[in-house]
Amino acid sequence: MPVIVIAIVFSACKKDTSRKDLIVGTWTQTALIMDTNGNGNPDDSVYTVQTGQSNIVTLKSNGTGTEVTTQGGTSSTLNFTWSLTNNDNTITIVETGTMSTTVSVAIIELTSSKLTVENKTTTPFQWSYFSR
Prior knowledge:
Blueprint: H1 2-12, H2 19-23, E1 25-34, E2 46-48, E3 53-59, E4 64-71, E5 74-85, E6 90-95, E7 102-110, E8 114-119, E9 126-131
Antiparallel strand pairs: 1-2, 1-3, 1-9, 3-4, 4-5, 5-6, 6-7, 7-8, 8-9
């Protein structure tokens, strides 16, 4: 009987993984879909990351991050701060460089290995897919 009680106590103490815990880490963009016809929905065309290109986003637990984009052997790094808003359903990113641009993207899917975000602040709208 004591084994059953111990099992119940340990299962009751299991910590739920928060969205912040899930999102912190390094993500590699795998695809991009746009709404080129302006109807508010993703087009059928999927733009996959080509050989020699990469877009790697790192979100740190202290609310800072980097985006390293490589194309044709040339890399550029963007530093930013980030936070979860809208009941942890939106990522708000503020570039910390000279432009201080703010972008908010809706989280469509978030698991330990997948992140999909929707950016309706750009024209055309964009859906970005990341994995780790």
